[in-house]
UniProtKB/TrEMBL annotation:
Organism: Pedobacter insulae
Keyword Transmembrane helix: yes
Keyword field: Acyltransferase, Membrane, Transferase, Transmembrane, Transmembrane helix
Transmembrane segments: 12-32, 52-69, 90-107, 119-140, 147-167, 206-227, 239-258, 270-289, 301-322, 356-375
Keyword Kinase attached: no
Record-level Gene Ontology MF annotations: acyltransferase activity
DUF5009 domain: residues covered: 42-94
Protein name: Predicted acyltransferase
Length: 383
């Protein structure tokens, strides 16, 4: 979610750019069979560096809302117009996510109706859109104190739902992949045809887990509101943000003992843990970049940050387009253009796992060149 000109935090653009570059790194390995452990999601419970990427982005969405809509919050006459704009943006994000899910990997034998009946409805961009809209409305309509209370209500309410409500057809509450309450709700409302194809019985961006994801966005909103305050001295801001971040991490780790940190379920402990880490990282970035003006190193990430959604969408669409182009191999077979490129220029020169990483780094650099040209020409595609 990029901000427009007023009150732009360079540290926020840096953090956003770093996060979306990390998204592209973990989503574009040369081979899914060869990935370094930190670049993979936790199998179920637990948290790897990769599991931090998505909640960091939603946290940043929340901070961005506080900055982009801060002046409009005080003027109630603009609320309806602002909410309609937020709804339009959310629908665009949701639509882009559906396009990525629907877009065929091969046009040969493509059946439009059949694909429509089996398209995955939840997804990353879809969740970003929903979280953005709900967080924006709550920011405009609630006081800071009530936003905080809403976060607490969501976290405890979700914990109660997931750990105390018996799952229909199972008979008891549980946190397993296919038998938890969220998985049951997804299968009931969306049916298996519209869920994550790798699982079919549950979805990591499912309906119920979007509720605590909203809490992640609201966590960012509160941090953004605090950063915008003019009546708090800079040193005190940074100290309070670090203290809050540390407290949230510790609370998340403590809650993990009973309600495990889990990205796919987006557990309440996961919200606190990742929100705390994001708060500390933003506070550190703010102190280094915006307060002390050490900003030379930020340019590559700012270039990514100002067109974050655009590059995420294109990086998901481009491999599908290019792999529709088939190239003959020496053994007489045919592979997609990107697969051929990887097998020709990376696989022969590195070990399998390093070839996979080198290809992912190449993708990041490739998009950086495009984004740098756009940045120099002041081309910012607002979504």
């Amino acid at each position: 979610m990029s901000l427009s000109k007023p009150q732009r935090l360079l540290s926020l653009d840096f953090f956003r750019g770093f996060t979306v570059a990390a998204m592209i790194l973990v989503n574009n390995p040369g081979s899914w069979a060869h990935i370094y452990a930190p670049l993979e999601h936790a199998e179920w419970n637990g948290c790897t560096p990769t599991d931090l990427v998505f909640p960091f982005f939603l946290f940043i969405v929340g901070v961005s809302i506080a900055y982009a809509m801060g002046s409009k919050k005080e003027d109630e006459s603009t609320h309806t117009k602002t909410i309609l704009k937020a709804l339009k943006r959310a629908l665009i994000l949701f639509g882009l996510g559906l396009i990525l899910a629907f877009f065929p990997r091969n046009f040969r034998g493509f059946d439009f109706i059949d694909s429509l009946q089996h398209v995955r409805i939840p997804g990353v961009l879809q969740r970003i859109g929903v979280v953005f809209f709900i967080s924006a409305v709550l920011f405009l309509k609630l006081s800071t104190k009530n936003i905080f209370k809403t976060i607490i209500l969501i976290l405890f309410g979700y914990w109660l739902l997931m750990t105390f409500i018996p799952v229909p057809g199972v008979g008891y509450a549980n946190l397993e992949k296919e038998t938890n309450l969220g998985a049951w709700l997804d299968r009931t409302l969306l049916t298996e045809a519209h869920l994550w194809k790798s699982a079919k019985t549950w979805d990591p961006e499912g309906i119920l887990s979007t509720l605590p994801a909203v809490a992640t966005g609201l966590f960012g909103v509160l941090v953004g509101v605090y950063l915008r305050r003019k009546d708090v001295e800079v040193g005190a801001k940074i100290a309070w943000l670090f203290s809050t971040g540390v407290a949230a991490v510790l609370l998340g780790l403590l809650w993990d003992l009973q309600f495990p940190i889990n990205k796919a379920l987006w557990t309440s402990s996961y919200v606190l843990y990742t929100g705390g880490l994001a708060t500390m990282i933003l506070a550190l970035s703010y102190w280094i970049i915006d307060v002390n003006h050490y900003s030379r190193f930020t340019k590559p990430f700012v270039v990514y940050g100002v067109n974050a959604i655009t590059v995420f969408f294109v990086s998901g669409l481009m491999p599908r387009l290019l792999n529709m182009i088939k190239i003959s191999t020496e053994d007489g077979g045919k592979v997609g253009a990107l697969t051929w490129f990887n097998q020709t220029y990376f696989t022969p020169y590195f070990s399998p796992i390093n070839a996979s990483l080198a290809y992912a780094i190449f993708v990041i650099l490739f998009f950086y060149i495009i984004l740098w040209i756009m940045y120099k020409k002041n081309i910012i595609i607002k979504v």
